[in-house]
Design goal:
The complex is a heteropentamer of chains A (about 500), B (about 100), C (about 160), D (about 625) and E (about 500). Chain A has about 500 residues and is mainly α. Chain A contains 19 helices and two strands. The chains are: A mainly alpha (about 500), B mainly alpha (about 100), C mainly alpha (about 160), D mainly alpha (about 625), E mainly alpha (about 500). At the A-B interface, α6, α7 and α10 of A face α1, α2 and α3 of B.
Chain lengths: ~500, ~100, ~160, ~625, ~500
């Protein structure tokens, strides 16, 4: 491998380097700002690198007159046996890295008030992000598996980061055990697939699987199903969703922001690539199962959230439903579905980050217990109008109201579904969105009601001057821009379509 | 008589299911972690068996990766066990069920 | 009957069953070691001596020992055994056992379709083969596995802190 | 002069606006000046128009003043246009002339009331609407006035709003007439559907050809029936008559103007206006007569036993309008209008003098508490005598005789024996209850101390109407030739004389017999009245044959039942079950979130088992 | 470009309102008032200068004003605004009622004045957008966008009616109803686009292009239903109406005015603009159902209005009844009925708006909206009762006022095509009299509950009322200018629809 060939792997390499440097920095001297900055710089560089990978494709589509300036599109850049760096992976890498960056920023605001070691969280975050990057590029079961574990392992540490908090530990335990079980399912499924096809490479599996017929490919199918079980757990799809609210509640707010966005995004990216490259779309059984999962997730997620009074749990349930929606788009298959999934994940990530960001900022100064009761948010608008505005926009976006990012996502889901005439799924999406409104509005209304009592949990007055506040404001603007002028983002997602469609 | 490769796979499946059962029935988190190790190990066995069928080293490489994972998982899990025992004074998973609803 | 395969296989299954159902953690871990050793034997039978050796060294030798350490640290004694006896009632395990039974039947149906049997090959894939592959196409996986271990290290360090 | 036609409605309308916006600031005299003056002005213009019309009739006997196009939608192009012909001129004369007198009287009658200017604003609005009604050259315009007078009627009946009963009476009046109006509106829709126009003249021209087929005859029958529905509502005929007696809750001048002289006769006007349609549907036309005949008998019986002076008059109004309907049914178009006019004179007179009596007796309306008033209220007494005479159609000296006799003769001549006999019997009833009323109120012992009114606005209207109710009124002949077709028995000669003699003797006979019984055998009368059977009959008649009771059971109560049933909004409740279900689902599903890891793992395993099974079987 | 200005104005104005609050409480009111006056002024200017007689729904469609800008080219979505007579009238109504809404909240709203006006104006801006959007995506965008400000208006400045379920409940109910049905419409819109795409390989959301989508009867039917449900909820059509009374009774006055006056009209507009022309055949097939639903609404709304004790709920149910007429008129398919429906929309907007303002004024003075606690109010106000009477008369369809023209035309036109339906609808005339008069009677007649005179209307209130009354009167006796403007677009729809119903040959009259 020469240097040029390694160039496309730059995001991964930079992130790895960042991890090493950060570890050395922590070892050298514990200093919160300094260590956080090291990680942030590294992640920024990695993000720039992955954006640079995506740039030519984007320009060709969106601003053709400048396309020449960025050099010829060279994607797919690299196909090592395990990883492939194409526009698709560049997009998801960017998404994961941006999320990690946002989480780092939020963590900084959050951890300021934490007593105890604050620096490891960045290290774990960078490690987990690396796992996400690997998954985004993965084209092989080995890298899939290693990426997934690299993503999850640091998360155990992050979820249980507040080691004095019983709830944090409980969440970590639940996640660790169940996640490990899910990993085992995925592994066993992979083994079955491998046993049947003799290959670990997605594309080869697809090719070889074409040759089986009848009961012969049952091992392949069941392997796929077991992988699906594991993935469904990671994506918290019903009926594998039960852990979600508990872990969301127990984990520190910025970690939840990461857990609910980056980790799921990366998993979805690899799932989609597996389905496309291994041609798993041809198995009606799998799709039927997924349809059931999607409908169940949508209904259960929304129904569970209805009367929820804990905003972190509420967002957890809502994320169950949202991944039901994404799965609905996923099932539609085809280029439009890939695009829809991309757009939806983008809008979902932005929105969820903003929502958990507000929770993070609300919780930061006291560290020990997050401001997660809806009660704590009552009348927030009259005290912190901007923070409330951000949360309002985020909730509206989750509800899929026009002018916000969420609407574009929902629109895409509908487009993908209607295109393939998935009426049952679309009906479920519509139904779920309708009942979902109830709890989003319920949460939103709290922000504006009068709160006569003393507010125990409240963001510091100068929250907006911190990096976290600035980032949240930027996220709000991004949500609105995505909702009103989505074309450039659509172009990005289109640019990162999967080859082999 | 030569063993069909499917029988090896089946044995690994049985081991897998036994591990799963361990997770389902044990309240002691230590046993739960052990059961996870069993499940990982059974997956590894399946990989090695598949590698044997295709005459490839890939199965064994997956085994090595799984081994790494198992070690990592065990270390993190045991660290967590220590911490949990410190906070909850028990290894009962049901005791750690404050969050629900 | 290929006894070289079936004896270790049966041992593994029985030992595993005992491991996950035992009342005493230490006994359970011992059964687990037995099970792992049996699996290592199967690896040898499958022509994967390298894997078999690793199984013994890493799994039985390192990981399980880690468990033993923890058991010792936590000083789990007879009280735990009593407690486990109370916890492990038929009412508790009956449901999961049925569920697992169904899963076994399903797996059996899947991996053992009538007529489609592929005999095991006797070819041995030993350490050199594995090493070449590992440091060839799987180089990145090795690097990433190291990252994984680093992550486990950091996480375990943080979680296990005593303060 | 014809150009000033619009002033007939514009003046009262202006009066209304001035009074409405200047309320409270004008003072009683100012309000009276505006209110009475505007109608007076309209009356003057009408007088001018009458003079011109009689002197120089316009071409074709009608003058049309187009104000503006109302709307143009597809083929539907009604204008805002006034049309003056003999019929509308007659109506105009009645409305503005009699209306002016009543306004004048009201300026005396209402003095001291809180809502003095409000009263006149309503009255002016009423006059304006009524003018619209009669001048409209298309049916939509007519409908405009038709509804306008309904609203004014509502307002004026409920004028004394502090008494909730008045409000209910007003509401009843409006809603019952609205039922009729709705029939009429549907009739208009049908007309438009069949003819493509609502212009009255066009309708009358087009109708004979357009309906000259079997389906056409069906259609015209339906249309005529619907128009009749409108007419019976407004004119308080069966079966929509129940509102009129209650409408007496309004001030007495209102009863005189609206519920005797003008508005209630609008139905007659409507049918006369659209006579072609009724002629095309002879059975409906006959039905008109039958409705009139039944109403007049029913109202006559009811009037016999009423004890409220205004209610007696109200039933007599119903009965007289019944005569007009009878005339219409018999094809005696002109006679109907003629009777309409004379009835306006003498009924206005009766109501006004009843008002005088009521005021004199301190707002007492029960005739049993009156008596012997002829000495204290001589003017009112004579007005009653003359007006009552006209009502009972005392031969030759009263206006009522000429018109009623004409009707009876035409009915006879047209071969409608049923109608004729009913009319004749009705005449007998009329004379009996009229005499009873006069005798009870003005004769016998004095039971209350009455104060006679004074002032020109008190006696002048009474005097004028008094004169008009005598044979003088009978000499005025509405210029209806060319507007309405001639009746069958025009210029009857000897046969007509015979009918005259018959009806005259019936009327006089009724009066004499009643007076005789009253003066000579009062005890026998009382004894008869005490008999149980008679009591029952009396109660039955008193309740106007139980229509109110019937409608209460048939319509009002079911409606209120419906309202009560629906009041929680059934659909809302039905939809409310969805959130209820969801809440239950939420509670149930929340139970799955036990917080126990083993349970989570179990669901995990179960899900895996199911998925594997599904994939295996689905393939 | 003027269209962009027209629709941007409320948004900018609203934002300014919010920001100017810091300079004083009065300022936002004036900014809002100024904004809406300018909107109305611009509408009038457009009315005066444009020629609205030649709008065609054809390939060579012609809009009086048009503005188009690529927006999301990926799906052929463009920012396409256009104005024809129908839009103009409704935009004008929005401007007018916007002024009224600002005026009537002058004293009522004292908390967070700036934010209130922000919501009010944004809502109105969304409505204006709905009336001008000629791209289905854009239309949906605005359709949903106007909900959020409305939600806030109800939830934050609403009343907690005693015995009611609270303003947040009402606001949420409103939101969920409209949003859920909106999702179905979104599905239908996307379905339509894909049907069009499959037929022509052109992906577009542009309304004029989609007008000529070839599709099978079954597809047309389902897509039409998707649109209809959304509009039916907003209109509202009876089984789906239950959000309306709650929303109205808890909303602040301005919100009620806005809801009844303008928001309900968006649904009728949607039916006229989208549902009928896009799916003429399915609509024709569906017409009997729709019309019977309209009849049900007329009767049911009236009966329930009669049953109410809360005066605002009463008026709310009358809206249901009136919109039933609009529904009947739209689906009747004759020119009189359709144009009558347009007039009815306008007149109902003004009369219901006026009634809600009056209810608000009564509430301000009595601090109750319960009719059982009123009675005899006539003697305690000099001006308010006759004005209420005026609007009650309008609402019962008194000739000479706008509602009459609308209802009469609707019934006249409907009778031509569907006599039985017209017959049943006409029962609404009687029921309207019943509920209007019972309202008058319970509030104003009877013995007064107190002696002291209540504060009468001030000049601001009088001026708003007088202008509404004048317009209603003008609409009643000379509706021709409005009819002229609306004729071209309505006729175009009607012809399209009628050719589908095959009515043209059947109706005997011209």
């Amino acid at each position: 491998m020469n240097g040029i060939a390694l160039l496309p792997l730059l995001p991964i390499l930079i992130t790895s380097a960042t991890i090493v440097v950060a570890m050395l920095a922590v070892a050298f001297r514990r200093h919160h700002w300094w260590n956080a900055t090291v990680v942030a710089i590294g992640l920024n560089l990695a993000l720039l690198a992955s954006a640079w990978l995506l740039l030519p494709e984007f320009l060709v589509r969106f601003l053709p007159q400048f396309a020449g300036a960025a050099g010829a599109p060279v994607i797919p850049r690299a196909e090592t046996p395990l990883l492939v760096v194409d526009a698709y992976s560049a997009f998801y890498m960017s998404l994961v890295l941006a999320t990690a960056l946002a989480t780092a920023t939020l963590s900084y605001a959050y951890m300021e008030g934490h007593k105890g070691n604050r620096e490891e969280v960045y290290l774990l975050l960078a490690l987990s992000a690396l796992g996400g990057l690997v998954m985004a590029c993965s084209r092989h079961f080995a890298s899939f598996f290693v990426g997934l574990e690299l993503l999850s392992l640091p998360l155990y540490g992050m979820i249980g980061y507040l080691v004095k908090e019983r709830r944090s530990l409980e969440a970590a335990m639940k996640y660790l055990v169940l996640s490990a079980a899910a990993s085992a399912f995925i592994l066993f499924g992979m083994a079955l697939v491998y046993a049947q096809t003799g290959s670990l490479l997605f594309t080869e599996i697809g090719e070889r699987a074409g040759g089986f017929a009848g009961p012969d490919h049952s091992m392949l199918l069941v392997g796929g199903a077991l992988i699906l079980v594991g993935i469904a757990f990671k994506l918290s799809l019903a009926p594998f969703h039960l852990w979600t609210p508990d872990v969301y509640e127990g984990a520190p707010a910025p970690v939840v922001a990461y857990l609910s966005t980056a980790s799921k995004t990366a998993v979805f990216a690899v799932l989609l690539r597996y389905f496309v490259e291994a041609k798993a779309y041809r198995y009606g059984g799998l799709l039927d199962v997924m349809t059931v999962l999607a409908v169940l997730s949508i209904v259960l997620g929304n129904v569970l959230a209805l009367m929820q009074d804990n905003i972190k749990r509420l967002l957890g349930y809502s994320s169950i439903a949202h991944f039901g929606y994404i799965l609905a788009a996923f099932i539609a298959a085809g280029p439009l579905a890939v695009e829809a999934v991309g757009v939806y994940l983008l809008t979902y990530v932005v929105t969820n980050l903003a929502a958990f960001g507000v929770v993070t900022l609300m919780s930061s100064p006291y560290g020990e217990h997050d401001a997660d009761a809806l009660w704590d948010y009552r009348g927030l608008f009259w005290r912190r109008p901007n923070l409330s505005a951000i949360l309002t926009v985020a909730l509206l976006s989750l509800a899929g109201i026009p002018m916000t990012a969420g609407f574009i996502g929902k629109f895409y889901v509908f487009a993908a579904g209607v295109d393939k005439r998935l009426w049952v799924l679309m009906g479920a999406v519509a139904f779920g969105s309708a009942i979902g409104l109830f709890y989003y509005l319920r949460a939103m209304a709290q922000l504006y009601l009068r709160a006569p009592w003393v507010r125990k949990y409240s963001a510091p007055l100068d929250w907006a001057q911190g990096a976290g506040g600035v980032m949240l404001l930027a996220l709000m603007i991004l949500m609105l821009v995505l909702g009103v002028f989505p074309s450039p983002f659509i172009a990005i997602v289109q640019a990162s379509g999967l080859a082999g469609q | 008589m030569i063993v069909p490769f499917e029988q090896v796979l089946f044995v690994s499946g049985v081991l897998f299911v036994l591990g799963l059962m361990g997770i389902l029935i044990r309240r002691n988190i230590l046993f739960v972690l052990m059961s996870i190790e069993v499940m990982m190990n059974s997956a590894a066995l399946a990989f090695v068996a598949a590698g044997n069928r295709w005459g490839q080293p890939d199965g064994q490489i997956m085994f090595i990766l799984i081994l790494t994972l198992a070690a990592s998982e065990a270390s993190v899990g045991l660290a967590l066990v220590l911490q949990i025992f410190r906070r909850f004074k028990t290894l009962d998973t049901d005791a750690a069920s404050e969050m629900k609803g | 009957m290929d006894l070289v395969f079936w004896i270790p296989a049966l041992v593994a299954i029985v030992a595993t069953l005992l491991a996950v159902t035992n009342y005493n953690p230490v006994h359970g871990l011992l059964y687990l070691i037995v099970s792992l050793l049996a699996v290592a034997l199967i690896f040898f039978r499958l022509g994967a001596p390298f894997a078999g050796i690793l199984e013994v060294i890493v799994y039985a030798g390192a990981i399980v020992v880690l468990f033993v350490f923890v058991v010792m640290m936590l000083n789990l004694g007879d009280a735990v055994v009593e407690q486990e006896k109370r916890w492990l009632k038929p009412r508790v395990w009956a449901g999961p056992a049925v569920l697992c039974g169904v899963l076994i039947v399903e797996l059996w149906r899947v991996v053992w379709p009538a007529g489609a049997t592929h005999p095991l090959s006797d070819a041995v894939i030993d350490a050199p083969h594995v090493g070449v592959a590992l440091f060839g196409p799987y180089l990145l996986a090795v690097e990433l596995a190291s990252m994984m271990l680093l992550a486990a290290l950091v996480a375990a360090f943080h979680l296990g802190r005593h303060d | 002069m014809y150009d000033l036609l619009f002033l007939v409605f514009a003046l009262p309308l202006a009066g209304f606006l001035i009074l409405a916006f200047g309320r409270g600031r004008l003072g009683e005299n100012g309000a009276a000046a505006v209110g009475v003056g505007s109608v007076g002005g309209a009356a003057l213009v009408t007088a001018g128009l009458v003079a011109q019309f009689l002197g120089h009739p316009p071409d074709g006997g009608a003058y049309t003043q187009v104000l503006w196009d109302w709307m143009k939608v597809g083929g539907f192009t009604p204008h805002f246009a006034l049309r003056l012909d003999g019929l509308s001129l007659t109506m105009l004369g009645v409305i503005t002339g009699v209306g002016f007198m009543i306004h004048l009287f009201a300026s005396w009658y209402m003095r001291g009331d809180d809502g003095y200017s409000r009263f006149f604003s309503y009255m002016n609005l009423f006059v304006a609407s009524m003018v619209f009604l009669v001048l409209g050259d298309n049916l939509l315009f007519l409908y405009f006035g038709w509804e306008g007078v309904g609203l004014c009627s509502f307002l004026l009946i409920g004028f004394w709003y502090k008494d909730a009963a008045n409000g209910s009476a007003a509401r009843k009046a409006f809603i019952v007439t609205r039922v009729g109006d709705t029939f009429m509106a549907i009739g208009l829709f049908w007309l438009f559907r069949s003819l493509g126009t609502l212009d009255i003249q066009q309708v009358l021209q087009l109708a004979p050809q357009a309906f000259d087929s079997e389906s056409g005859r069906q259609a015209v029958r339906g249309i005529a029936l619907l128009l009749l529905g409108g007419a019976v509502g407004k004119s308080a005929q069966l079966p929509l008559q129940t509102w009129l007696p209650d409408a007496m809750a309004g001030p007495t001048p209102v009863s005189a103007l609206i519920h005797a002289a003008t508005m209630v006769t609008a139905g007659v006007y409507l049918i006369a206006r659209t006579h072609v349609l009724f002629e095309l549907a002879p059975d409906v036309q006959h039905l008109v007569g039958v409705v009139g005949a039944v109403t007049l008998l029913l109202a006559g019986f009811t009037a016999l036993v009423q004890t409220d002076i205004k209610r007696v008059l109200a039933y007599s109004t119903m009965s007289q309008i019944g005569y007009m309907f009878l005339a219409l049914g018999a094809g005696a178009w002109s006679a109907a209008i003629f009777h309409l006019m004379t009835h306006a004179f003498f009924k206005a007179l009766l109501f006004l003098s009843a008002g005088a009596v009521i005021l004199a007796c301190h707002h007492e309306q029960d005739i049993r508490k009156m008596g012997g008033l002829r000495k204290t209220l001589p003017l009112a007494f004579w007005c009653f005598v003359v007006g009552g005479g006209a009502l009972a159609a005392v031969p030759y000296i009263t206006a009522g005789f000429y018109s009623k006799d004409e009707i009876l003769w035409q009915a006879y001549a047209g071969g409608h024996m049923d109608l004729f006999l009913a009319g004749l019997f009705g005449a007998l009833l009329t004379s009996i209850y009229t005499t009873r009323l006069i005798l009870v109120v003005f004769f016998g012992e004095e039971k209350t101390h009455a104060h006679a009114g004074h002032g020109v606005s008190y006696w002048l209207p009474l005097a004028v109407l008094l004169v008009l109710s005598t044979f003088v009124g009978g000499l005025i002949h509405p210029p209806l030739e060319g507007v309405l077709p001639a009746a069958p028995g025009e210029g009857g000669g000897a046969a007509q004389l015979g009918i005259e003699a018959l009806s005259g003797s019936v009327a006089i006979g009724g009066i004499l017999v009643t007076a005789l019984v009253y003066f000579t055998r009062p005890r026998a009368l009382l004894a008869l009245a005490q008999a149980p059977a008679a009591q029952a009959v009396r109660r039955f008649w008193f309740s106007a044959f139980g229509f109110d009771w019937l409608y209460d059971r048939l319509l009002v109560r079911p409606f209120f039942w419906l309202v009560r049933v629906c009041s929680g909004d059934l659909f809302d409740q039905a939809i409310g079950t969805i959130p209820e279900l969801l809440r239950h689902a939420n509670v149930l599903s929340t139970r799955t979130q036990t917080g126990r890891m083993r349970w989570y793992a179990a669901s995990f395993a179960a899900g895996a088992v199911l998925i594997v099974a599904a994939v295996m079987f689905r393939g | 470009m003027i269209l962009v200005l027209l629709f941007m104005l409320p948004f900018v104005g609203g934002f300014l309102c919010w920001q100017t609050e810091r300079f004083g409480r009065g300022l936002p009111r004036w900014v809002a008032l100024g904004t809406m006056v300018v909107v109305l002024g611009m509408t009038l200017y457009l009315w005066a200068t444009g020629d609205y007689s030649v709008t065609l729904l054809g390939p060579e469609h012609h809009w009086v004003h048009e503005y188009q800008l690529a927006w999301i080219p990926r799906f052929g979505i463009s920012f396409h605004l256009a104005l024809d007579g129908l839009s103009l009238i409704l935009v004008g109504l929005t401007g007018l009622l916007g002024i009224m809404a600002v005026a009537c909240s002058w004293r009522e709203v004292q908390r967070h004045v700036g934010f209130f006006h922000l919501n009010l104006l944004w809502n109105l801006g969304g409505v204006i957008g709905v009336f001008m959007a000629m791209d289905l995506f854009l239309f949906f965008f605005f359709w949903e966008m106007m909900l959020v400000p409305m939600y806030f208006l109800i939830a934050l400045w609403g009343h907690n009616a005693p015995g009611g379920k609270g303003r947040v409940y009402a606001a949420t109910k409103f939101f969920i109803f409209t949003q859920a049905s909106g999702l179905l419409m979104l599905l239908a819109i996307i379905g339509l686009v894909f049907v069009h795409y499959q037929a022509t390989r052109v992906i577009t959301f542009d309304y004029p292009v989609l007008l000529h989508t070839p599709m099978g009867p079954q597809a047309e039917w389902w897509l039409m239903l998707g649109f209809f449900v959304a509009f039916a909820v907003k209109l509202p059509v009876v089984p789906l109406h239950s959000w309306l009374p709650d929303a109205h009774s808890q909303a602040p006055t301005a919100g009620s005015v806005d809801l009844a006056g303008v928001l309900l009209k968006t649904a009728a507009y949607g039916l006229l603009r989208f549902s009928l022309p896009l799916f003429p055949h399915a609509s024709a097939q569906f017409a009997p159902v729709a019309m019977w639903l309209g009849v049900l609404g007329i009767v049911y709304g009236a009966v329930l209005a009669f049953a109410q004790n809360d005066i605002k709920r009463l008026v709310a149910y009358t809206s249901i009844s009136h919109m039933g007429f609009v529904l009947v008129g739209i689906y009747a398919g004759t020119d009189q009925a359709m144009q009558g429906a347009v007039i009815n929309m306008l007149a109902h907007g003004i009369s219901a708006g006026g009634l809600f303002i009056l209810c608000g004024e009564v509430y301000e003075r009595l601090h109750t909206r319960d009719l059982r606690e009123m009675g005899g109010l006539w003697s305690r106000f000099p001006f308010l009762p006759p004005i209420v009477l005026f609007f009650a008369a309008a609402s019962l369809g008194l000739p000479g006022l706008g509602n009459f023209v609308g209802e009469f035309l609707v019934l006249l036109g409907t009778f031509r095509a569907h006599p039985l339906i017209a017959l049943c609808s006409a029962s609404g005339l009687v029921l309207a009299a019943a509920y209007s008069l019972i309202m008058m009677q319970r509030a104003f007649y009877g013995p007064p509950k107190g002696d002291e005179p209540l504060e009468d209307m001030n000049y601001r209130e009088l001026a708003t009322m007088m202008s509404l009354m004048a317009i209603l009167l003008l609409l009643g006796i000379y509706p021709q200018p409005v009819l002229d403007v609306a004729r071209a677009p309505v006729q175009a729809v009607q012809e399209l629809y009628q050719s589908a119903t095959g009515l043209l040959s059947q109706a005997g009259a011209p």
